[in-house]
Amino acid sequence: MKRSPDHKNKNLTELEVFGLSAQYNLADGHSYISAKTHYQPVLSALPELWNHAAETTVPQMEKEFKDTFAEYFGLDGLRQHECFSICPTASNSIDIVGAWARAMKYRVGLVEPTFDNLAQLLRRREVELEPIPESSINDTQALKTLIQEKQLNAVFLVNPNNPTGLVINQSLMTEIIDLCKQLDVVLILDTSFRFCHRTHVDEYALLTEKELSFIILEDSGKQWPTLDTKASLLSYSADIAPLIRNIYEEIYLCSSNLSLKLISAFIEHTISLGGVSYIHALVMKNAQTVREQLANTLVSVEEVDPDSTMTIMWLNIEKTGMTDLELIDYLAQYDVAALPGRYFYWNSHHVAGHDRLRIALMKPDEQFAFSISRLRHALEVLEVELGEARTPCLEGA
């Protein structure tokens, strides 16, 4: 008998944990593409990577990692930036942001929808949160009004946003930075899906030029298949660096040199394959598989911002007649795991997102097509069941 998802904690990570034991796991957004297929030279070089990590000082390895990351994304502003720390995961970086915001007694505006653990971690640190509707990001006047009415001290945005794929491009980012400077508000950016940008945005250069107080957190785990060996680059402006670094050192001594060298090797090999465009090609191939397989089913794929190539897809499930949680439980009978839409609406999940699911694309090369085929099969069976339920029974002859 298939195990059913657990909903007792009412959050997304709980359902991602369920997905780890599902045969057709489309839940979490981490990268599980085949390292043997795409990164065999890195795997073969593990002894050399170990030796380099063992012979390099921690500060030097951290700088090497930052510079390699900056080179890959063309972030000259990051390459020149000196105030940074490196956490094991993006969640650890968010937790440090929460501890800092609480120490400053800041009221923080957080975009909605977005992955719910951002709000959970900040609330765990007792940070006062206010939702920023995603629609207001493209309307700086509306954003200005919200910041003033809610008396926000910091604005926390995700670029591109998870799950919708909304992109803050260079022009809009400049407007938002100017607004935050005008209102004396700290800008916090989660750029974990940076590699999904189709156009270049160097927030570090823009923020430094405008002399705005900022925090940016990055994540390696969404792109490189390192079996969840990850690194989250946490950068911050010089004016707020002392407190953030102090909080970091209360929790961590340093990053793992081996982790940083391994991830750097994955990045360098990706550059040799063609850089971000190589990853985009893999994503677009899987996205096309989803569109073809789910065509003419009870769900439809939501179109994303044309400036993004997201490794996740937002599905409209209205035609199923089920809520997101009901459909999640139904799919579990077929050993398919996905994420419900409602928990991305961290402040309004009781009313919003019930007609959406999220699936992830960076899954094992040899497994992904089977998982989408299994999802399609489950939806086809559901459509038959719904049709039979609507057909009146005929008595007699």
Walk me through the structure.
The chain is α/β, with parallel strands linked by helices. The chain folds into 2 domains: 12-29 and 274-387, Aspartate Aminotransferase, domain 1, CATH 3.90.1150.10; 39-272, Aspartate Aminotransferase, domain 2, CATH 3.40.640.10. 47% of the residues lie in helices and 13% in strands. The chain contains 16 helices and 13 strands. The strands form 3 sheets. It has a 7-stranded mixed beta sheet with strand order 2-8-7-6-5-3-4, sandwiched between helices. A 4-stranded antiparallel beta sheet has the order 9-10-13-12. It is globular, with a radius of gyration of 22 Å. The model has no long low-confidence stretch (mean pLDDT 96). It is an enzyme of class 2 (transferase). Keywords: Aminotransferase, Pyridoxal phosphate, Transferase. This is LL-diaminopimelate aminotransferase.
Topology:
Layout: H1 12-19, E1 24-25, H2 35-38, H3 40-44, H4 46-55, H5 58-73, H6 76-80, E2 84-87, H7 90-103, E3 107-112, H8 117-124, E4 128-133, H9 140-150, E5 154-158, H10 170-183, E6 186-190, H11 203-210, E7 214-217, E8 232-236, H12 241-251, H13 257-273, H14 276-294, E9 300-301, E10 312-316, H15 324-332, E11 336-337, E12 339-340, E13 356-360, H16 365-390
Parallel strand pairs: 1-11, 3-4, 3-5, 5-6, 6-7
Antiparallel strand pairs: 2-8, 7-8, 9-10, 10-13, 12-13
Helix pairs in contact: 4-13, 5-13, 7-8, 7-12, 9-10, 10-11, 14-16
